[in-house]
Amino acid sequence: MIASPFDELTDKQRECLRLAADHMSSKEIARALGISASAVEQRLKYAVRTLGARDRREAARQFARWEQAGCGESTCGSPGVEEFEAGPHPVIVEARASDAWEAAQLADSAGYFDPHWDKPLAKAVNWPWAGEGRQPADLSPSQRVIWMAVITTGLLLVFGVFVAGLEALSRLHG
Prior knowledge:
The chain has 174 residues and is mostly helical. Helix content is 55%, strand content 7%. The chain has helices at 11-21, 26-33, 37-51, 56-68, 98-109, 121-124, 141-173, and strands at 81-86, 89-94. The chain is elongated, with a radius of gyration of 23 Å. The protein starts with 10 loop residues before the first helix and ends with a helix.
């Protein structure tokens, strides 16, 4: 009998992966579960290692596909297990769920798979201001740099339009 790596995940790791699949940061997951952010990081780190994923996002996507394939409540470690290639890491799923799994794999490789396509933009984007369940300090350093560049570009564009308007006015009167 071949056991699925998903069966080795603890309930707490699964809970963190579900919330990570909802694009939540470690701080947001910690607040939702009432634990520390470092505990969330540890759970996700071990889940990533268990699944053989490159990072937490890949682990969360693999876990979401596994649950969508119907293995979340079943015995996917039972006989009749087949192995499918999920990028560079093999992932084991039950044979009766193989059609759904293969369809999800093909959609994912084609760039069509996003289990959160219906998530509103306001919640999908990590905005630089405080919001529902978010503090302004929840941005990573790279996200802060990106937002600074976006805001600076917007201000320069507005300033350019303002200067162009002043120049047009001076031509009318001069």
